[in-house]
Amino acid sequence: MTKHDQNIIYKYALRAKYIFVFAAGAGLLSLGIQIFFQPNLISKNPDLESILMVGSLIFGLIFIAFGFYYKKDIEIYIRQQQL
Questions:
Q1: Own/partner long-range contacts of 29-36 (Cβ < 8 Å, ≥24 apart)
Q2: Which residues of 28-64 are buried (b: 16+ CB within 10 A; e: fewer)?
Q3: Per-residue pLDDT at 23
Q4: What is the mean pLDDT of residues 52-59?
Q5: Contact 36, 53 (CB under 8 A)
Q6: 66 exposure class (CB count in 10 Å sphere: 0-12, 13-18, 19+)
Q7: DSSP 39
């Protein structure tokens, strides 16, 4: 395996990290929206449902925002290392 091939694999492995963060955030955001539109989906307790909805919406948005920050850092690192 040449150095060029190793750099390509390393570059896409780095990119897979922030894609995973985006996917986790999108999943949490989707769960929160689904609980909002379909009450009593997970539990019969409305207080628990509202806590789960708000928590998943907030953490989903936090993960997506962190994913954008992480993406910016990784792309700058890739350009600096000339991968």
A1: 29/56, 29/57, 29/60, 29/61, 29/64, 30/60, 31/56, 31/60, 32/56, 32/57, 32/60, 33/57
A2: bbebbeebeeeeeeeeeeeeebeebbeebbebbeebb
A3: 96
A4: 94
A5: yes
A6: middle
A7: T
pLDDT one-digit tens code per residue, 14-47: 999 999 999 999 999 999 999 889 887 777 888 8
Nearest Cα neighbor of 25 from 58, 54, 47 is 58
Residues 46, 9 contacting (CB under 8 angstroms)? no
